[in-house]
Fold these 2 entries.
Entry 1:
Amino acid sequence: MTALDKQRRKKLQAVVDKDYSYRSYYDDDIEVKSTGRCGFGVYAARQFQPGELVFEVTGQLINKKHYEGSEYVMDLDEDWYLEPSTPGAFMNHSCSPNCELVQLTEFSLGVVAICNIEAETEISFDYAWEAFDWNPKCQCGARNCRGWVVSEDEVKKMKRLAKGRKKKPR
Ligand SMILES: [Zn+2]
């Protein structure tokens, strides 16, 4: 067996996506589909009212003591992270989100609408990440976009970090 080069990996991943649908999801409420700008996203398949449960996020539970989750890991409670599976894993950040996360059960989070959501709208929440050197630039397109995927009160710190990042030779 040979290691997969980048191009072949991409080609084979497309086969996995098409034939095995790990990354696809559709029901009467929501749908995972391509955003056309940054990979996949979760979209409303119908209208949601403020306060309405949009869907339940389940996945792998990871003990915070030996953390090895991805960047999409979510806070479940004091001791546990939730590594969301499809469709939750495909929810994008927005600086002007239409949903927020609440703890629903011992093992799951709920995505709850915080405003009226029309069908076909992308479902988003505020990742509210801490500022680190690696935070990506935000592409949410909101009028009040913070510029980076970072929480509101970390914007100042992020601007400082980003300045330093530019100066550093790579
Ligand atoms: Zn933004």
Entry 2:
Amino acid sequence: MSSIEVEDANELFQAQAHLYKHVLSYMSSIFLKCAVELGIPDIIHKRGRPVTLPELVSALEFQPNKRNCLRRIMRLLDHSGFFSTTKVHNSREEENEAYALTSASKLLLKDKPYCLSPFVLLVTDAAFITPGHYLSRWLRGNELPDPFVTGHGINIWGYAEQNHEFNNLFNQGLASDSQMAKLIIKDCKHIFDGLSSLVEVGGGTGSFARIISEAFPSIKCSVLELPHVIADLPETDNLKFIAGDMNQSIPSADAFLFKLIFHDYDDEVCLKLLKNCREAVASSDGREKVIIVDIVVNEKKDKPEITEAKLLYDALMMTCVPGIERSEKEWERKGYSSMLVSLATK
Ligand SMILES: C[S@@+](CC[C@H](N)C(=O)[O-])C[C@H]1O[C@@H](n2cnc3c(N)ncnc32)[C@H](O)[C@@H]1O
């Protein structure tokens, strides 16, 4: 074989590895989901030191014949940065692997202020994955709004209304994402200063609004949501829940907060939502504002891992809702900024 052919072969094998890595990467998600379901991060955390494979097998009450499968699950999750593995020796000088948490798996610990396990369980749920199998059929077709409807016969909000378990999964998943806002809310004082009322539109079970209501007790916060999402939720003096449809109307307030709402919809719907805000502005003294908390794709500014996370989120928005993750230009181009100005000058 000539050296050129060897080079070609190497390149092709490299390309094959690249292809296999990407086409099989869903198994990383599946293993991570499995680790969350088994509570592996919590088991390691409770020990307060790296946990050996036999200890993990015993804590999980697995049959000994599952030990090797567990080792292989931990091996992939180590490779993808969720655990770190060291070798330890027991009193009989036997060598064992021991697993420690990494900063990524520390985000999976239950009973911690920032626990994203519910988000992992949500996005790896079959209901979220199924629509991807209908993407090409949906792209060729001309009618249904998104592949979720093609696959499930109903849109995601209707599906959540009909499936109690998925509704809980969805609400808990998004609520866990909102908890991360605690990290920055104190730095955002200037955004909330001077407001007397705020409506979080499509605010789920109020996880984000609760953080705001606690950080800024003088603001009367309310959450506008679909009735099945907010049924029986506890209210406080400055946090109320209002059942309604944001496409119809939005309750009156100084400020309107949209967290991860605009990315669910095309521009036409987003502009309609902003118009509904304009109708609902409580005061016209310069305090009124729309606060959008959403994803901005910025390949130049972000690290590659952040861009990849945003592009994957965009793929989720394409398959599960008629939505999109917008670039900075797309946010600007579609006139959202001028909408905000006209709101302020109403
Ligand atoms: C992507 S989730 C975002 C939830 C929340 N803002 C968060 O970030 O945690 C979209 C939310 O919009 C709500 N929603 C969908 N359609 C709605 C409508 N027509 N009126 C009010 N809320 C709606 C859903 O129930 C869901 O909770």
